[in-house]
Amino acid sequence: MPNDNGRFGQYGGRFVPETVMPALIELEANYRRLKEDAAFQSEVDFYLNEYAGRPTKLYYAAKLSQHYGRGKIYLKREDLLHTGAHKINNAIGQALLARQMGKKRIVAETGAGQHGVACATVAALFGLQCSVFMGAEDMERQALNVFRMRLLGTEVVPVTSGSGTLKDATSEAIRYWVTHIQDTHYIIGSVVGPHPYPMLVRDFQAVIGQEVAAQIAAAGEKLNYLVACIGGGSNAMGIFYQFRDDLSVTKLGVEAAGKGLQTGEHAASLTNGKPGVLHGALSYLRQDSEGQVIPAYSISAGLDYPGVGPEHSYFKDTGRVTYTAVTDEEALAAFARLARLEGIIPALESAHALAYLETLMPQTKPDEVIVVCLSGRGDKDVQMVAQVMGGLAG
Amino acid sequence: MNIAEKFRTLSATGRKGLIIYLTAGFPDYSTTLQAVKAVESAGADLVEIGLPFSDPMADGPIIQHAATQALAAGATVGKALELVTLLKQETTIPLAIMTYYNIVLQFGIDKFAGSFAKAGITGLIIPDLPVEETAVVEPACRQAGLDLIKFIAPTTTPDRLQTICRQAAGFLYCISSTGVTGVRQIDYDQLAPLMTAVRGETGLPLAMGFGIGSPAAACQAAKYADAVIVGSAVMERLTNSGVEAVREFTSAIRQALDKECGC
Prior knowledge:
The complex is a heterodimer of chains A (394) and B (263). Helices cover 45% and strands 18% of the residues of chain A. By secondary structure, chain A is of the alpha/beta class. Chain A folds into two domains: 17-49 and 87-197, Rossmann fold, CATH 3.40.50; 55-84 and 205-389, Rossmann fold. Chain B has a single domain, classed as Alpha-Beta Barrel (TIM Barrel), CATH 3.20.20.70. Chain B is 49% helix and 14% strand. Chain B is built from twelve helices and eight strands. Chain B has helices at 3-13, 29-41, 61-72, 77-90, 101-107, 109-119, 138-144, 158-167, 192-201, 215-222, 232-240, 243-258, and strands spanning 17-23, 46-50, 95-98, 123-125, 147-152, 172-175, 206-209, 227-230. In chain B, strands 1-2-3-4-5-6-7-8 form an eight-stranded parallel barrel, surrounded by ten helices. Chain B is globular. The two termini of chain B are 23 Å apart. The model of chain B has no long low-confidence stretch (mean pLDDT 96). Classes of the chains: A alpha/beta (394), B alpha/beta (263). Chain A binds chain B through residues 5, 13-23, 25, 161-162, 167, 171, 174-175, 178-182, 276-280, 285, 287, 289-293, and chain B through 53-55, 57-58, 60-61, 64, 68, 71, 76-77, 100-103, 105-107, 127-133, 150-157, 160, 164, 175, 178-180.
């Protein structure tokens, strides 16, 4: 998977202007060659291990487990990586790919800023020019990450069109890429976009699940549940992929229900959307009856994307993964809960996965093992959360 | 008159074709109707009716703005269909629909092709549907008698060129530069080798678009193509000055193509 046309079942594909097609074909050919190239793979591994800080810990959250009184909850600590989130796995892989292809410039989109910071970081590391497109609203919500990117020498371009969030930043990044296609590589930040991106981002993130499998085995445990948040879905795909055919592991993807699914202000494309085409791929999408894309909403800038990776759509239809959604309020409660119980401040994105434990844990058997992907750390969100729940945190 | 007939007529009289793009429902449908009439009277040969999409990946700021405004004013596919029906009563100019794939997909591919063909459309242009993805739309277009227009870009490789030309119908939409729609300076002479290569693969008419913002630029492009496509420059005039400005601009391009190009 995917097939030659980049399809996962009916999902995926390459719905892009002709200008971009040769670049996608070149990218796929280079990627398929380098995937089999031991020298390239060991270079990726070198930077993942020596620079980014892999493997990340699989931490047994004793107090969180105790809080629910049943089951053993482990946290896959992607938040401990350099730059603070799983995004660096993909950024390193794609930057090295870009360098192998002789590209001098990289362009990226970012929502919460974590992917933007990861790209700015690898651009500095590998001496590439970098432009990051970011919604104007997100730049306000994530001012600290904007500063980080600029400090790293990246140009941050505000996007005011549409809803001024991740969807529009992605559109602008694609437009920039189309214009500078000859010398620029577009580092898509999630398992979305036209083929081969969903496949190659998945492959660069699959290390998360591979490590979980080894770490669970080393701990002498048997895994029962995997829980991860889903915006575009890269950390979830990264942790699920290793276990895609293992039916003994229940995989749960948690989307952002925002202010509530019934309010229409949410980002739950799998739970509450239907198949459509956005940013080059056919996948579940929030759209109206005419096919116009409905801007997504979530308190987490990293989740408010109206689409989702096409392989997740395939997993949904085939029942391999169960998708669900939690509200802003539930995510905020989980954010505070992990901080108080474990001394770990999670990213608001990851807090959505943690929030689902409220539903999941009462259903688990006492000795079952749950791994939650802690996709990133919450430093970037602290200021905004303080504004929303200052009283609670104080 | 369909696209092939139109180009045969142009070829017989030794003239270059002029294709004008207009966003349906911007700022309202009545204006679109007037604008189509205006460009017809000013000598346009084909009008691309753009159905707005919320995320127009191939378009620059001017056309994106028009799409956003049209949608905010309540533009729908159904209303565009009514507009086309009216246009066929009040004009004789051939019409093509330009829109993004999701709009067609959600309306229903067969229903979309059938309804617009019945209303009098002769071609369908979908900029985010490369030749690899046309298999689902092609049969519906063939059934309805619509030409599904294919694109050639400066980045198109020789093997792709062959595939695209083999599947092409109506005319080939030759993109003059990498990037999105919008007026810019282009060295059209640089495109000569590409256009020669395209002519080596197909006998279909070649229309060049993207970036053409003046009568002089239209003439430059027409040296290598059978027709030119003008969108953003027209929409800019419609946005800032109204239908009369569109008529004058179209007329200026028409005259330049007829006289200065020596065609």
